[in-house]
Amino acid sequence: MKKLESSLKNMLLVLTGITAISVALLAFVNGLTKGPIAEANMKTLNEALMQVLPSFTNNPVSEADTVYSEKNGKQVVDFIIYPAKDGDKWIGSAVEATSLGFGGELKVLVGFDAEGNIYNYSLLSHAETPGLGSKADIWFKEGNKGSIVGMNPGTTVLTVNKDGGQIDAITASTITTRAFLQAVNNAYKAFANEGHDAVSGATQKNVQPADEISE
Description:
The chain is an alpha+beta fold. The protein has helices at 8-52, 136-139, 174-194, and strands at 65-71, 74-86, 89-100, 105-113, 118-125. It has one domain (53-212). It has a five-stranded antiparallel sheet with strand order 1-2-3-4-5. The termini are far apart. Residues 197-202 and 204-215 have low confidence and may be disordered.
């Protein structure tokens, strides 16, 4: 077999070939993993919904309402609202909301009963410091020091005690606590503005974009 002459042209041909093969392999692997990843994410979401909402009989994911706003010329998701029903009766909703923590975006799924009381929550993702900010996944749960379960952000805005509120901050993680409570308060505003007929669960949508929600 004749050896390729060492030249710029041949080097470019080889590099182009390697790049094409790499792209094809990445596309192939992405195709293989896309389905399982989506399935795993859906399983995680469904488990979180069962955790944060009263027992429901409908499929909240299929009835979800996504609220968008425009930022820098692009549509971005502000909230996703998952209604929960017992038969035909609306019993509450879970709201997926985000805020900016110490290390980056913090995403929370907050479940509210029909009266707007916090039923439970799930910390879906975060970029906080392991062992400190990451404690948000349990710190605000029922029975723990910073518990918010049973509270209604419509009657009492959830604020950290260092800012004059009643919620104990995560030890050495006040910034994360503020970000978490901001996400919960914003989630409540989306929940309240969405509106529902308490009997039929019919949506009476009136949700503000995130940039119109006060901090």
